[in-house]
Amino acid sequence: MTSTDQAIEAQIQAAGANKAPRITPTDIEANIASEHYFTAKDGVLGVIVGHGLQAMDCPEPLSLLTFCVLVLRNGYTVTGASACASPENFNAEIGRKIAREKAVEQIWPLMGYELKSKLARGEA
């Protein structure tokens, strides 16, 4: 959970805006079954090795593009990406963090839709 998520959650609690069923950051995290990270370079090299092809020069910018794939408990996947403009500034940990945040942003509307459907059916 990011510090922004924590701050928003604290505001929701303080405002008493948590009286009805809703999705929380904890729900989002609990819905993630696994997470996977790789750079575009990793992907290109994996394809080359997997197909028995000759290794080729991989353009440097591909090593600056980080992907995060989150597998949700129901098997659905969401992705996020982070690109760095200057190789000198690349930091793998920060790239993974940004890519993960972007992937998590996609889970909110999915789980919100699921909750709204349950509420409409009287299940929640």
Q: What is the topology, as strand order, of the major beta sheet?
A: 1-2-3
Radius of gyration: 19 Å
- Helix- and strand-based class? alpha+beta
**Stretches where pLDDT falls below 50 for ≥5 residues?**
none
Measured between the Cα atoms of the first and last residue, the distance is 24 Å
Task: Give the % helix.
Answer: 40-55%
Strands, count: 3
Quickly count the domains: 1
Q: What is the H-and-E element order?
A: HHEHEEH
Strand content: 15-25%
The global form is: elongated
In this structure, how is the largest beta sheet organized? 3 strands, antiparallel
Treating each run of at least 4 consecutive H or I residues as one helix, how many helices? 4
Mean pLDDT: 90
Would you write up a description of this structure?
With 124 residues, this protein is α+β, with helices and mostly antiparallel strands. The chain has one domain. The chain is 48% helix and 19% strand. The chain has helices at residues 3-15, 25-30, 40-50, 92-120, and strands at 32-39, 65-72, 77-83. A 3-stranded antiparallel β-sheet has the order 1-2-3. Strand 2 and strand 3 form a beta hairpin. The model has no long low-confidence stretch (mean pLDDT 90).
